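Exercise 7b. Backbone tokens:
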């Protein structure tokens, strides 16, 4: 790797290390995903009843752990969420890592969110584990998700931010080549991607029914 590329990467790591060094204590966040996949917004591009966000899988963690990487392969835990909306494998892995103190501080599962609705989980972060990763399936869909990964709750001064937020777009988890809104329970519609593809924004696929538009929003609100 050339030094031109290496230098900014090292600088970013140095900054993260610096803000963690100045940090003290812990904080609690509400992690809110708002589902905008209503027929009012997307019309006949989506089923007339709208689309759901499956129960969130959310984790606070250190930079030693990464649960989801865009341009990387979905783990079996992420694949289960993307294909079925069930987050049991993801939450079990995260709980195991938490119990073993392997770079996980907190784990939370959500209740799911219908079209136009929110779902909220609470996550504790601390100085060693200031990153939040959270994801949910767009359901029904072949393997489409909304996600935030490795979001740093610390600012440059080592203070926990009061609020973070942004837009959610659809990502293709790269495990199923289907393009229709078919129920996850009917595996006969599955078209497994062989070989597995990288997780990527769905707008890179010309058949994206959302036309690259935002499908929701996320907000982290510090409550303690
Ligand atoms: Ca599928
Ligand atoms: Ca796919």
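Sequence design result:
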């Amino acid at each position: 790797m050339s030094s031109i590329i290496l230098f900014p990467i090292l600088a970013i790591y140095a900054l993260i290390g610096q803000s963690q060094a100045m940090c003290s204590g812990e904080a609690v966040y509400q992690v809110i995903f708002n589902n905008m996949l209503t027929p009012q917004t997307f019309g006949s591009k989506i089923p007339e009843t709208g689309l759901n966000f499956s129960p969130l899988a959310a984790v606070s963690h250190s930079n030693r752990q990464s649960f989801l990487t865009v341009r990387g392969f979905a783990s079996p835990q992420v694949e289960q969420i993307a294909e079925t909306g069930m987050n049991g494998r993801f939450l079990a892995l995260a709980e195991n890592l938490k119990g073993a103190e392997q770079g996980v501080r907190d784990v939370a599962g959500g209740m799911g969110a219908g079209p136009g609705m929110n779902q909220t989980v609470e996550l504790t972060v601390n100085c060693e584990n200031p990153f939040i990763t959270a994801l949910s399936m767009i359901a029904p869909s072949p393997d489409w998700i909304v996600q935030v990964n490795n979001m740093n709750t610390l600012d440059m001064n080592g203070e926990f931010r009061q609020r973070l937020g942004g837009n959610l777009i659809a990502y293709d988890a790269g495990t199923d080549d289907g393009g229709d809104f078919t129920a996850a329970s009917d595996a006969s519609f599955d078209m497994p991607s062989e070989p597995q593809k990288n997780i990527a924004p769905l707008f890179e696929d010309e058949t994206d029914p959302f036309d690259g538009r935002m499908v929701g929003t996320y907000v982290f609100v510090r409550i303690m």
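Instructor comment: The two ends are 42 Å apart (CA to CA). The pocket of calcium ion (ligand 1) is lined by residues 83, 142-143, 176, 178, 190 (CB under 6 Å).
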